[in-house]
Automatic annotation (TrEMBL):
TM regions (residue ranges): 147-164
This protein's name: Xaa-Pro dipeptidyl-peptidase C-terminal domain-containing protein
InterPro entries: AB_hydrolase_fold, CocE/Ser_esterase, Galactose-bd-like_sf, Xaa-Pro-like_dom, Xaa-Pro_dipept_C, Xaa-Pro_dipeptidyl-ppase/CocE
Key words of the record: Hydrolase, Membrane, Transmembrane, Transmembrane helix
Xaa-Pro dipeptidyl-peptidase C-terminal domain segment(s): 318-568
Top-level taxon in the UniProt lineage: Bacteria
Organism: Eisenbergiella tayi
Pfam families according to UniProt: Peptidase_S15, PepX_C
Length: 577
């Protein structure tokens, strides 16, 4: 097939403001006009390999498409300054309309890509370019991205991403002095020191004037609760504005899994027309974030049918656009819209919807004798409602946060989203609740929520819940995790705590599809930090990122008849008591 493909290099596309962005085009080697599928990237069209991952530009071209890969504003030779969030609506609109008018395009345009590329599609679709017919926003979110964990919750890791783009652009426009590059490399090497810097707004790594993009990290921190600002930079939902159907894809081990599934659900509810509300598709595999959809992860092999190539994702992208642009039907488009990989039994299933219709939800309750600290404590999970039990207590110290990613060691060699949690579970500020080894299979397919009753000595703090699959050898693989900030427990309106008062927290922990095997156990962790995914709550109630010192908070988790903390499972085959 590759012999029948030709590549057009550095095709200029001019935005309304006069800025010129450049594209490469992979297309059939003839003079016919074909529809276009656009990928807008900050990662350099010269760097990515469009023949690998799920994209397979040569296969899509062979199916009769122009595959257009564009360097976004400020990347490589594309003009302007790269803004991690800005210009997406406008540049997306202008790009779609310009590509539709190219002599090699038949006027029909779609888009594809994951993560940043996915948000660029959401933003372009929100702008409603007339020639856009459908989108494939994989592994993405309207609102969450580097520097934003959630409303009012900052993630200090954006400077890593900005440094990467700055170094990339040096290959095209060398503007950084040797001293600046030396300092940047030093900050990257000493990244933990930078991430812990206080006040966070003065982090030296984010205050280098020689790198204009860094101003965005500072501005975002300053406006982390400014709704008008978030709207201005495009980081607000726009389901109702989107007029074209969306094909969503994510993985159970993708850190944007829940956001991508949320997109599918909300497009069905709130999409701008019937095509959007009824025409979507969702695929969730065992994969982690990125374009390489592997059949294995951290020593777990999910079977020969698990990988992206085995599922033929590029073929399904072509089927998707064949349907919406060329009017051709296929098994993918005529069958059930939801495709799920069930871990544990390593099987694909198709469903009519998500959550799966007629799912049964069952509460599993927290128990202990008051000493659930560490995995050696007495914390338990069971179907039995608690009676008269003492609360568990731990001290959260923002100067010693629980890491969101565990550094690999010889004993625990895993470092990924779904990594082994036993290192963290040796900490006294981590409460651990575990079932007895299962005497049968436990199927969990759907969204998981926790309801936690807690008090704090602070006026504001964080709570984190994790759900974990414990293997027979003790390996504790994380299935999902979620942090809530107490002051935003009821939404965007700030409500500080009354110290010592017991509050109920509803925590949407995440989505999964897994069958836990006999002999495995289910575990839940409760703690108060997820650093550096989320900034450390200093427990003061002050402005995020603007204070130099925090204070310790004494946290109590209640599980008794009056305050029955629990986790709500979409449980199929339940464990017998």
């Amino acid at each position: 097939m590759r012999e029948n493909i030709k590549i057009l290099y550095d095709i200029p596309v001019t935005m309304k403001d006069g800025t010129v962005l450049y594209c490469d085009v992979y297309r059939p080697d003839n003079e016919k006009k074909y529809p276009a599928i656009v990928n807008r990237t900050p990662y350099l069209k010269d760097n990515i390999n469009p023949l690998s991952g799920y994209m397979h530009a040569h296969k899509l071209a062979a199916r009769g498409y122009n595959v257009v890969i564009q360097d976004v504003r400020g990347s490589a030779n594309s003009e302007g300054i790269l803004d991690p969030s800005g210009h997406q609506d406008e540049d997306g609109f202008d790009t779609i309309e310009a590509i539709a008018a190219m002599e090699w395009c038949d006027g029909n345009v779609g888009m594809m890509g994951e993560s940043y590329h996915g948000f660029s599609q959401l933003a372009a679709a929100r702008a409603q370019p007339p020639h856009l017919k459908a989108i494939c926003p994989f592994q993405t979110s309207w609102t969450k991205f580097p520097a934003v964990y959630g409303f009012g919750i900052f993630s200090p890791v954006l400077f890593f991403w900005i440094y990467g783009r700055a170094f990339d652009n040096e290959k095209y426009h060398p503007v950084l002095s040797e001293e600046t590059k030396r300092v940047m490399k030093k900050y990257l090497k000493d990244s933990e020191e930078q991430l812990r810097y206080r006040p966070l707004k003065d982090m030296p790594a984010a205050c280098m004037d020689e790198i204009p993009m860094l101003s965005f990290q500072r501005e975002l921190l300053e406006n982390i609760t400014n709704i008008d600002y978030l709207k201005e930079i495009g980081r607000t939902e726009g389901f109702e504005q989107v007029q074209v159907p969306a094909f969503e894809l994510t993985g159970w081990n993708d850190f944007l899994r829940d956001e991508t599934i949320y997109n599918y659900v909300e497009f069905k509810k709130r999409g701008g027309n019937e095509r959007v509300r009824k025409g979507g598709r969702l695929i969730v595999g065992p994969w982690q974030h990125g374009d390489v959809l592997s059949d294995s992860l951290l020593g777990q092999y999910f079977g020969e049918e698990a990988g992206g190539d085995a599922v033929d994702i590029s073929g399904k992208i072509a089927d998707w656009y064949d349907f919406w642009i060329k009017g051709k039907d296929s098994e993918f488009m005529s069958g059930n819209p939801v495709h799920l990989f069930v871990m544990g039994i390593n099987q694909w299933r198709t469903e009519k919807d998500w959550p799966v219709p007629d799912t049964c939800y069952k509460k599993m309750y927290l128990h202990s004798e008051g000493h659930s600290n560490t995995m050696k404590g007495d914390g338990r999970l069971s179907w039995d409602r608690p009676g008269d039990e003492p609360e568990d207590c731990y001290t959260y110290d923002p100067d010693n946060p629980v890491p969101s990613e565990i550094k690999p060691t010889k004993e625990f060699p895993y470092a990924a989203v779904t990594q082994d949690q036993r290192v963290n579970e040796n900490r006294d500020d981590v409460l651990v609740y575990t079932t007895e080894p299962l005497n049968g299979e436990l199927e969990i397919i759907g969204p998981v929520e926790a309801y936690i009753y807690a008090s704090s000595s602070a006026v504001d703090t964080d709570y984190v819940c994790k759900l974990i699959d414990v293997w027979e050898d003790g390996t504790a693989f994380c299935l999902m995790k979620k942090l809530v900030r107490a002051r935003y427990r009821n939404g965007r309106k700030e409500e500080l705590l009354e110290p010592g008062k017991i509050y109920e927290y509803r925590i949407p922990v995440g989505n999964t599809a897994i069958v836990l095997k006999k002999g495995h156990a289910l575990r839940m962790e409760v703690t108060s930090s997820l650093f550096p995914d989320a900034d450390c709550n200093l427990n003061t109630g002050g402005r995020a990122g603007y204070e130099a010192a925090g204070k310790k908070a004494v946290q109590k988790i209640f599980h008794c008849e009056e305050y029955p903390s629990c986790i709500v499972l979409p449980a199929g085959k339940n464990v017998s008591k």
